[in-house]
Structures are given as C-alpha cells and as structure tokens.
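Encode chain A's predicted structure.
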Amino acid sequence: MSLFLLLILVALVLGIIGFAAHGLFYLLIIGGVVLLADLVYAAVRLRHGGRHHRVAR
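Encoded structure for chain A:
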C-alpha cells in the first residue's frame, strides 16, 4: 500500500513540475505514465489480494 501511495505522490509531483516549468513538458508525460503504471499495479494487487496473507510473529 505504501508503494502505491509513493508512486501516486511521485506522479503528482512530476506532473506539477512538468506543467509549471517551461520546457519540461516531458516530466508531465512521465508523471502520467507513472500514474497509469501505478493504477495497473493497484488493479493487479486488488485482484490477487485475497491470496497473500502475512502472519505476524
């Protein structure tokens, strides 16, 4: 879950910098790609989330 939130944060920061800074439009594109990859990762984790349980010791 923390990886999901970290990737959302990275995508948001890259998108803001890419939008605000002149000439850094590629950062906006990279932020969008990271966001899409993160959503795919979350969908895969939710689909297979019931099978992996950790036992706390």
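Helices lie at 2-20, 25-47.
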